[in-house]
Amino acid sequence: MRFEDLKKLNEARATRKAVVTVTDLATGEAQVLVESGSVGAPLGEAVAKALRSGKAGAVDVEGQALFLNVYLPPPRIVVIGAVHISQALARLAPVAGYDLTIIDPRTAFATEERFEGVELVADWPEDVLKQHPLDAYTALAAVTHDPKIDDFPLSQALKSGCFYVGALGSRKTHAKRVERLMEMGHSEEEITRIAAPIGLDIGAATPAEIALSTLAQIVQAFRRRDLVTGR
Q1: Going from the N-terminus, what domains does the chain have, and what CATH number goes with each?
Q2: What is the pLDDT of residues 115-152, one digit of tens each?
Q3: Interval 156-203: pLDDT, tens
Q4: Which of 47, 50, 125, 148 has the most CB atoms less than 10 A away?
Q5: What positions does the domain XdhC Rossmann occupy (predicted)?
Q6: What is the 3-state secondary structure (H, E, C) of 53-71?
């Protein structure tokens, strides 16, 4: 790999951006495509498919044999709220390949006893997210039912382009949430990105089932996310 290409690859990794290297199998020539800008069809279609799957492989593009190698930032889930749903989600997420962090300033809930082995931060999201900002490879799930805790990270998730934003609560609760987010400067179009009620509709009735439906919805959003690629 050329030095300039390696530098581009390392810069993308450092900033949690996805990269696809495209190698011409006939000539050995390679190019590095970062998930920004645009690539025309039909190569763009092949690159987008590779980015969604995360799998490397050979493709044929108009008679040209190419090998696509994919470098994705590790997808992660940030959960706002140390509740029963979070406990179940913390067990399920690693199985699906997701890192998970739980943030909750309520020290009565955010205890090591309840979340053994889980990355748990007992602080306000406003303070935590300044040091660990959200990004396009982060899913945010707000599950406290408390606007004082949930609203700020939901707003940040929309601004940061998180691939998934979900919030616990009834439609009535969400209607009030929409009003507050609009007062914070978000448009109706932005707010429609929030999955509320959270999770796929599987008739979930227990915290574990809600966690399962939420994880399924996160995986769905990740595999179907909008992609833009460029050199």
Answers
A1: 3-71 (no CATH), 76-223 (3.40.50.720)
A2: 999 999 999 999 999 999 999 999 999 999 999 999 99
A3: 999 999 999 999 998 899 999 999 999 999 999 999 999 999 999 999
A4: 125
A5: 77-218
A6: HCCCEEEEECCEEEEEEEE
- Cβ–Cβ under 8 Å, residues 188 and 182: yes
Q: What does the alpha-carbon distance between residue 115 and residue 102 come to, in Å, rounded to a whole number? A: 9
Give me 131's structure tokens: 């040091």
d(CA 198, CA 218): 10
Q: Rg for the chain (alpha carbons), in Å?
A: 20
Backbone dihedral angles phi then psi of residue 63, each to the nearest 5 degrees: 85, 0
What φ, ψ does residue 14 adopt, rounded to 5°? -65, -30
CA angle 68, 62, 42 (to 5 degrees): 65
Q: 156 CB contacts (<8 Å, ≥6 apart)?
A: 125, 129, 133, 134, 140
Residue 104, token pair as written in the block:
């909750």
Measured CA to CA, the distance from residue 15 to residue 193 in angstroms comes to 24
For the full predicted model, state whether its pTM sits above 0.85: yes
Alpha helix positions (H), the chain: 3-14, 43-53, 84-92, 125-131, 147-160, 171-183, 188-191, 207-223
